[in-house]
Structure formats: structure tokens, C-alpha cells
Amino acid sequence: YRSADKDVVDFGEEGSSSRVLPLRREPRSGYGVSGPVEYSGELKTIPCDENVKSGGQGVTEIVHPLGGQPGLVILNYDMADIPDRITITHNGRVVATTGGLVSGRGSLKWYYYPQPGEPSYCTVKISAPQGGTIWQYELGCPAPLGPDSYYYLEE
């Protein structure tokens, strides 16, 4: 929710400072899950397992609540022909990135292991420096790893 007396978005319980994000003030425009949207300057929040469509040229940041269960988080992306960069952060640190501008399809993976007092969300930042760019991605909800799961997480 947005606090009336503060410029923050709080994803936790009332007064939980570890789950508070500052609102962004720069205007942005682009496409949301259901079509074109005009960003109001606030961070946009979209649940995991939903497709996020192009915000076009510029920087787009989207918050994805992840819940309290640990698991493997996979972001599948399609950056089409014009290259863009993806950076995923959690609890103030980069947990996955394309490492630079990329085009085409790919995926990023990281293991989400929530701890008491830490945020239960991640932020996906798309940096799209060139005009005419289109992109889309889907950030999966954390999936528990079973005894038959063979995922190799890269550092």
C-alpha cells in the first residue's frame, strides 16, 4: 500500500522498515500486463508467474512479491532484436543479471531463500537504451527443489 504521510510503498506489516521501498518520481510510459499503461512514477508491482510486456526505451523497474517459501526463481525473457539489459535485485544485492545488453530469448535463475526481517520481493530492472526496442519476460514464482531436481546455479 502507499502510505499517505510518506513517499514509500510497504509490502510488509505496518511499520516494517525492511519491506519499504521509496517511490520513483520520474514519469515513465510503456506496456503493462494487459496493454499500454502510463506509469505514475510509482514502482509497478506485478505478481510472479505473469507475463510482463515491453516498457519501451528507458529504464523500467517492476517489483515482484515472492512470498515466504524458498525456491528456484526463473526469469524467462525475450528481448527481440534490439538488445536490452536485465538486472534482478533482492535485499539490496544483484542476484541475477544478463551482464550486459542482450537480444533474443534466454533465462536467468537464482535461488530465493527468505530470511526473517528480509524483503519478500525482488525488483526486475530493464535497461533499454535504444529506441524501437520491445521486450517481455515472465518471472516464475519460487519453485521448491526436490530430490530429483538438477539445477546448477552459477555464481
Structure explained in plain terms:
This protein is mainly beta and 155 residues long. The protein is built from no helices and 13 strands. The protein has a five-stranded mixed beta sheet with strand order 5-7-12-9-10, with no helix packed on it. The chain has a four-stranded antiparallel beta sheet with strand order 6-13-8-11, with no helix packed on it. A hairpin with a 2-residue loop joins strand 9 and strand 10 (93-97). The N and C termini lie far apart (34 Å). Residues 1-41 have low confidence and may be disordered.
What's the N-to-C terminus distance?
A: 34 Å
Amount of beta strand = 35-45%
Q: Count the helices. How many?
A: 0
Rg calc? 16 Å
Biggest pleated sheet: 5 strands, mixed
Give the % helix: under 10%
The chain-level mean pLDDT equals 75
Global outline: globular
- How do the SSEs run, as a string of H and E? EEEEEEEEEEEEE
**Strand order in space, largest sheet:** 5-7-12-9-10
Total strand count, please? 13
Class computed from helices, strands and strand pairing: mainly beta
Q: What is the chains' assembly state?
A: single chain
Identify the notable features of this structure and list them briefly.
four-stranded antiparallel β-sheet, five-stranded mixed β-sheet, mainly beta, 155 residues
